[in-house]
Specification:
single chain, mainly alpha, Non-ribosomal Peptide Synthetase Peptidyl Carrier Protein, Chain A, 3 helices, 51% helix
């Protein structure tokens, strides 16, 4: 469906859009997304941006339970596998 690299890029672009940043987002795969100022509302917006970018539907997805790129990717993969979309 998509690779970790594609997912990572979608998250970075999503953070940039949600937080209206002009510079590129530099974040490691295990860095807390909250360190970028993502509150719960911005987290929802990030999930929506990632879904749109990758053409996926994660349903009701709580970003607080997956607050790093690695955790977000793993949880998204599990959700998609569960619904047969992986």
């Amino acid at each position: 469906m998509f690779t970790l690299d594609e997912f990572r890029e979608a998250v970075k672009v999503g953070i940039k859009k949600v937080l209206k940043k002009t510079e590129d987002v530099v974040i490691s795969d295990d860095e807390d997304l909250g360190d970028y100022g993502l509150d719960s509302l911005a987290g929802i917006s990030l999930v929506l941006e990632v879904e749109k970018s990758l053409d996926i539907d994660l349903g009701e997805f709580d970003i607080d339970e997956a607050n790093t790129i690695n955790l977000f990717y793993a949880k998204a993969k599990r959700v998609l596998e569960e619904f047969g979309d992986w």
